[in-house]
Design a protein that fits this description.
The protein is an alpha+beta fold and about 150 residues long. It has a 3-stranded antiparallel beta sheet with strand order 1-2-3, with helices on one face. The protein is rod-shaped, with a radius of gyration of 33 Å. The protein starts with 17 loop residues before the first helix and ends in a 5-residue tail after the last strand. The model has no long low-confidence stretch (mean pLDDT about 85).
């Protein structure tokens, strides 16, 4: 013969009200909280990636505009042997022209000695999921005039 297993002691039915013992809907609440959390993470990934993409684009456009402006050297000084420096007006015009063709807004600055050019581009990113309005990003490009004679 086999011995009967003792049953675990359970509180009497009157110890807890009936609604306490039911678990109807417990899984639905867990699924709801989990889904909301997953959507929040997805929103952060999508909008964070979008902002990084906008920053990468701003930095790329700024770098290209700086290179375009850096190619505008002062031919008169270079030919006469006075040195190779950036023609300020032509460099600023070339960089701004590149920014306009790229559809970007920004600023162009030439160093005092005319040997370098800095372009700053400002862009905005409109988040897809996260509220709070547009996010602004700023990219900077720098071009140094290198002359090896």
């Amino acid at each position: 013969m086999t011995a009967a297993r003792p049953t675990p002691a359970s509180p009497p039915a009157a110890a807890h009200p009936r609604w306490w013992r039911r678990d109807n809907g417990a899984l639905s609440l867990f699924v709801l909280v989990t889904i909301v959390g997953l959507f929040a993470v997805a929103a952060l990934v999508v909008d964070g990636g979008g902002k990084l993409r906008a920053l990468n684009n701003a930095e790329g456009v700024a770098g290209e505009a700086a290179r375009a402006g850096g190619q505008a050297i002062d031919a008169g000084k270079a030919i006469s042997g006075e040195g190779v420096v950036v023609d300020r007006n032509a460099a600023v015009a070339a960089a701004r022209s590149y920014l306009a063709r790229a559809g970007a807004t920004g600023s162009v600055q030439v160093s005092d000695d005319g040997a370098s050019l800095t372009v700053t581009v400002n862009e905005t990113y409109s988040p897809v999921f996260l509220p709070g309005g547009n996010w602004s990003v700023t990219g900077t490009g720098h071009a140094d005039l290198v002359y090896r004679g």
